[in-house]
């Protein structure tokens, strides 16, 4: 049996394990040990498993994820997400559909602090959903807005998706962070437009909320000021080259801790809760990364990237069509596989294919991350939608599924816009980094 065929069988085997409910990390580790053992022998398989645990733990760049996760959990337990939503609520709540728009705005801002979709949807679901139900918002609109607001997380820095992409490909994480800003904001604008159109056609979907005085609006800005300053410090420092993404994560974690103490948001119990919560997520991510690194070694030994590159270039397709085929493949796979394993499996194989086609690596990275994040809110295995269902048990899952559909259309429109106009992803990184 040829090595490339063994490689494809390994990918299929790992996906089958994931579909059966086995955790992603164990699926990747088990597949890697079995198939590396087949092609290189059991001794090599177990040697790789031990060395990858050490090398992953020793990789300085992976600590970027740990620091930003810790920063996010400090912010969550200090209830900074509630501050952000209250600010958006007081400024936009009086509009028709304003609370849903406030949810999108708050999710965008919170994504810039947390960087994780599930954390964003958990926070917004607990804060925004009761408010929208209080003002008789239709459950389709309210759950749809909460769900898609979280999908901005993989694009707005600090983005877990871009950190993983940068480490796996050797691309600058700072450049990828910058590249995600305009697409992330375009997504937010598209979601707000969807809300406005729906409420225009059916005013009962999002009735007007209560209005706030200028004093209340000003006080809400004051409450969100410190965390906004922290975001500007961390992300601005990374963009300016004052420190690396890893150092920015460390500064952000410490800054969030200090702000929480200064604002008296931390008790001993909440501090321990933040550490434990962050530790669980970091541990889960670490196991997934170990499995991914082992799987990447297996893919490399099977020459899958080279075979796929030769196959795609042999089709003599234009660079745009090559990228479009890759995006369609991962758009469909995103319906069934979560974002992180899809990235960890797909990037080592298809990034070289895109580079061989001669496309801009930054543009392709943005397109890739945007495409697979659609799967986070697309049935049947949309983790975020089931997270919302867990918080609102009286809302049928079919209502949540149908509520997110108009926003998925908006997402596809933005993806096609960036596909047709690459400077939307390329211009800002070129502007900021070409002047250094």
Structure description:
By secondary structure, the protein is mostly helical. It has one domain (3-433). The protein has 21 helices and no strands. The chain has helices at residues 3-19, 24-40, 42-58, 63-77, 80-92, 98-114, 117-134, 139-150, 160-169, 173-179, 181-201, 214-240, 245-262, 268-301, 304-314, 319-333, 339-356, 361-373, 383-391, 397-420, 423-433. The longest helix is centred in the middle third of the chain and has 34 residues, at 268-301. The protein is globular.
Give the helices and strands, then pairings.
Elements: H1 3-19, H2 24-40, H3 42-58, H4 63-77, H5 80-92, H6 98-114, H7 117-134, H8 139-150, H9 160-169, H10 173-179, H11 181-201, H12 214-240, H13 245-262, H14 268-301, H15 304-314, H16 319-333, H17 339-356, H18 361-373, H19 383-391, H20 397-420, H21 423-433
Distance between the termini: 51 Å
Query: What is the helical fraction, as a range of percent?
Result: over 70%
Mean pLDDT: 85
Round the Cα radius of gyration to an integer and report it.
22 Å
Briefly characterize the structure.
This protein is mainly alpha-helical.
What descriptive keywords fit this protein?
single chain; globular; 436 residues; 79% helix; mainly alpha; 21 helices
């Amino acid at each position: 049996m040829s090595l490339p065929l063994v490689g494809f069988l390994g990918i299929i085997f790992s996906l089958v394990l994931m579909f059966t409910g086995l955790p992603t990390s164990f699926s990747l580790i088990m597949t890697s040990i079995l198939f590396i053992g087949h092609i290189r022998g059991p001794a090599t398989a177990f040697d790789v498993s031990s060395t990858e645990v050490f090398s992953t733990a020793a990789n300085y760049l992976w600590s970027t994820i740990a620091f930003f996760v810790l920063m996010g959990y400090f912010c969550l337990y200090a209830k900074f997400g509630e501050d952000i939503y209250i600010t958006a609520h007081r400024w936009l709540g009086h509009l028709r559909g304003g609370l849903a728009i406030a949810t999108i705005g708050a999710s965008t801002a919170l994504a810039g602090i947390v960087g994780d979709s599930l954390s964003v949807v958990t926070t917004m679901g607990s804060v925004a959903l009761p408010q929208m139900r209080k003002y008789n918002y239709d459950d389709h609109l309210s759950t749809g807005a909460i769900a898609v607001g979280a999908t901005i997380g993989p694009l707005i820095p600090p983005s877990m998706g871009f950190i993983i992409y940068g480490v796996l490909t050797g691309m600058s994480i700072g450049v990828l962070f910058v590249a995600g800003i305009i697409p992330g904001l375009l997504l937010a604008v598209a979601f707000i437009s969807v809300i406005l159109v729906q409420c225009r056609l059916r005013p009962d979907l999002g009735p007007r909320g209560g209005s706030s005085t200028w004093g209340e609006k000003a006080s809400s800005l004051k409450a969100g000021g410190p965390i906004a300053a922290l975001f500007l410090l961390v992300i601005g420092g990374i963009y300016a080259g004052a420190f690396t993404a890893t150092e920015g994560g460390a500064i952000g974690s410490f800054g969030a801790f200090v702000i929480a103490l200064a604002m008296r948001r931390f008790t001993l119990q909440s501090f321990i809760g933040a550490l434990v919560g962050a530790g669980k997520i970091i541990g889960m991510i670490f196991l997934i990364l170990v499995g991914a690194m082992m799987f990447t070694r297996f893919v490399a030994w099977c020459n899958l990237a080279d075979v796929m590159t030769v196959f795609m270039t042999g089709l003599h397709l234009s660079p745009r069509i090559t990228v479009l085929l890759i995006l369609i493949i991962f758009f469909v796979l995103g319906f069934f596989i979560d974002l992180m394993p899809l990235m960890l499996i797909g990037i080592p194989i298809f990034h070289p294919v895109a580079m061989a086609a001669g496309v801009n690596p930054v543009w392709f990275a943005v397109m890739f991350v945007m495409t697979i994040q659609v799967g986070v809110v697309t049935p049947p295995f949309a983790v975020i939608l089931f997270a919302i269902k867990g918080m609102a048990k009286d809302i049928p899952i079919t209502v949540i599924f149908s509520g997110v559909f108009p926003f998925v259309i908006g997402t596809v429109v933005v993806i096609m816009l960036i596909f047709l106009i690459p400077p939307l992803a390329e211009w800002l990184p070129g502007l900021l980094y070409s002047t250094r």
